[in-house]
Amino acid sequence: MGMLKEFRAFVMRGNVLDLAVAVVIGAAFSAIVSSLVGDVITPLLLAPALKAAHLEDIDKLAWGAVKYGNFLAAVIKFVVIAFVLFLVVKFFQSLERKKAEASPAPAEPTATEKLLTEIRDELKKR
């Protein structure tokens, strides 16, 4: 049980959660960029070369086709991953808020403590 509390405290630290989100979002965005270059930009750049070669074999022509479906799939995956991460962060923020609300406010100093504080302050003045 103690290790679970330590793990929760570790995850609830802002730096760890922010870093985890950044790594996952970075990986998902990297997939979008790779798909954009590999499935859209490169075939568009190769299309004039393929037309100039007068290829009659359809199999050879297919490798130069623009695969916009792959790119759209990468974008959709990114949006889903980003939304799930948003929900996870909101969940952890709500846990943190509940923890802050549950922690009691510091107790009011007793009459003796107030008197001792006044005496200390008077002694400091002298």
UniProtKB/TrEMBL annotation:
Its main location: membrane. It comes from the Bacteria. One of its GO terms (molecular function) is mechanosensitive monoatomic ion channel activity. Gene3D superfamilies: Large-conductance mechanosensitive channel, MscL, domain 1 (1.10.1200.120). The chain crosses the membrane at residues 21-48, 68-89. One of its GO terms (cellular component) is plasma membrane. Keywords: Cell membrane, Ion channel, Ion transport, Membrane, Transmembrane, Transmembrane helix, Transport. It is a multi-pass membrane protein. Belongs to the MscL family. Channel that opens in response to stretch forces in the membrane lipid bilayer. May participate in the regulation of osmotic pressure changes within the cell. Homopentamer. This is Large-conductance mechanosensitive channel. It comes from Puia dinghuensis.
